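Researcher: First entry.
Model:
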Amino acid sequence: MIEKTTHISFFERFLLGRSWWLLPLFAWTALVVWLLATNIERIKTTNMEIARNSAQNFFQIVELTRLWNAGHGGVYVPITAQTLPNRFLKIPDRDVLTTSGQKLTKINPAFMTRQLTELIELQSHVSFHITSLKPLRPQNKADTWEYGALQQFEQGVDEVFERTNGEPAEVFRYMAPLFVKKPCLKCHEVQGYQLGDIRGGISVTLDAGNLFGGEARALSVEVGKHVGVYLLLVIFVLLFLEKMRQNWLQLQYIEQQQEMVIRERTRELELLVTQDGLTGLFNRKALDDQLASEMSRSGRYHHQLSMLMLDIDYFKKVNDVYDHQAGDKVLKMVSKWMQGSIRASDFAARYGGEEFIILLPETRVDYAYDLAERLRRKIENGVVTSDEGLEIGITVSIGVAAYPDHAENMYDLVKAADKALYRAKRQGRNQVVMAIAQDDLQ
């Protein structure tokens, strides 16, 4: 029988080997991590842009207020405990007295910025600081962060912003440069500034808690969404793959069962074609095929092939005296004794009626004769019991022939064994007779 060869496809290996499922799992994990990282970065970038825009708006409002002040050459306000004359403003008309006797002092853009900062700080979490690399007022000296920003402005940077740790909490800092404009030269020309120069900058400090307070929650929600979608899809895919795997295994099991049934039915059909239904030995057709094969092999490798032809003596009397069921029992027992007396490589077949043939590959004729004699005695000493409990004694006659001693082909080998069997019967039955050698016939 030709064995069926199966080719396992990649899909089958992937489906049946759970370790292969790690490949799409790793790919899905990498994709989700990448999407999550991208969205987290987008949230942080968006929040930073919102914070930057807020600080930039504060800066622009302060800058416009300063320009308004500078455009008017300063603004006179009443002198109070909070607004004292600016000792750093060196102009002859800094302080004036109105006709009604009220004392006024001029405040420049820098002084006004400081007062706005103090007022805004009282009402919100925003603070401003005007500073430069060459401040007139010591309090306007830049801190470390502002000093670094001012140096970047000198190198052409438009603005600097950063989310950083502050006291007592995290803050967002923003700073943009102040350029010298025409109204500014009135006070700052003495410092050597020219129109368009960077004379300093204004830093805006915002409470990060107000700006980024919702960021942690947004990030948590984003992580939760991605983890949830990730787990749901992983669970769904694993369940789906496991279901497909079980279905595939079930189909394979059904296919294997079907193949087993087919093999069993095929074997049964082969037995029907090659096996004798009563004795279980091979039949005449199988004998012809086997004899042709063994003759060909013996001729090719120069081996001897011996044959025993066996006939049950007075078998017709068994059927007549007892019955045909008893005859069938005799045939079965003789077949059983034959099978128990030969090798696995030997071949026993029912030749027809009560005649049997045994093929003995690679066996010398004298060994074949000894085997035939042992088998004859075994059958002679054996007992077959009929359905009625009667003992039936039987004997057999056996003719022995061999290739190439007694024949040159399969047909002559059968004839030689048959003639030897005929001689055994004619000489009184219950004996083994060797065929006559070809040389003796000539």
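Researcher: Second entry.
Model:
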Amino acid sequence: MMQNKDPFDTQPMLSQTLFLEDDFEFVEVLGSGGFGEVWRAIDRNLHRSVAIKMIRPPRIDLIEQCINMLARESQILAKFQHPNLILVHALRRQDDKLAIVSEYIDGGSLRDRVEACELSVNKALRYIADVSGALATMHSENVVHCDIKPANILIRSKTDEAVLCDFGLASIIGQKGPTGGTPLFSAPEVFMGVPCPASDVYSLAATLIYAVARTELPQSFPIGKAYIPTDDVLDAFPTSLEVFLRNCLSPDPKKRPSLDEFAEHARTNLNQSILDQLTFDLSQNSTSTGPCIVTIECIASPNKSVARRSDSRNLNSRAVRDLKKVIPSSLQAKTGEHVLIRVTANQIGYLTILNVGPSGNLNVLEENLPVTAPGKNWECETILAPPQGRERVFAIWTKTPFIRTADLRDETLPKEGSLDDTKSLPRRATRDLVRIDQSARSHQEKEKSVAVVEIEHVG
């Protein structure tokens, strides 16, 4: 007996694009799901690539429901303009056909990067920190994403930054929205239809763990159950971040950190970790027989005692893998105290002195000081300002000039003010630290050395 087939089973999806072909040339399918497909297309008028999301209901009786869902998604997206949120260009409709035209993100998804084993902890942290900034903008408008997962985080290749997409399950706090989610990545309350801002914090933590420890995660996961990672899964993370991630995955939304706390913690750990790696890379030849011995001292008022002292001979590869082993002693300095930083190098070249504060902010204190008289002291003085926590001061010697602040992306970094100048935002600091790391790598191994001092900033 012959059965009538649903027209969507026999009609190729490409035919659904005909009402747009005057304006767009459809190139390839980027992804598909149970309710639609996403295409890469060329805008014939503006000569640029775009992404076009079109409905493809599994049954003909679901057409109107899918149209309403896609229209709702486009309206939510149109509320926001943020570098880490996908930008919607237009909503097109003709009869029972509907499409969202948005920017095309060319770097693939976070899931692609994970499956290709292309992610370090630092890179994963950077992408998640980007998304947390985008979510802060959404939450300020009472919108919760509800479906954060690796497949919904795209990478903009030019800037190597993450972009959050797919708002099909987004909910407005206090209003009834679509229910559903993705096991392992979605918080238990999302499946119960009561999402809240803490739901996105849960998803960020689960996505970060997946990005770093994918092979250790369960292949299937029950719907609506909170994910409890094992110790082995979290081994790749610093201890402070491991404890924090466990709190983010609490089954009780009220016990999870806020999104602001998550963003600050992620960005701080990221920036400090970038500096750990930078120190490790620079220190490979920073030995007693290396190219240059750099000595750094920090002297805190009011007692004017030498609080911390380090030189590049102490930074062997084993030590810098754990910076706590570089200098066993710990200086305590209080908010408002003056700190004198004294740096010495024993070879002709250039000195750059920089600091990363407790919140991950970057401050370039001095750049490319010419070392024309080996053994001479260079001094700069700053004042400790909030917040409290671990401060790091770095002195980098290079045979040729190091990167200039004017070469860093966006506006230049402040050279005056406190060790943790609030003008140097942690987000911007991440970008600049990456550029600094790239500059350090561009110098030959025998043409660079580094010294580091830590200050425990207390009240």
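Model: Note on the second entry: Confidence is low (pLDDT under 50) at residues 1-12, 285-289, 314-329, 409-424.
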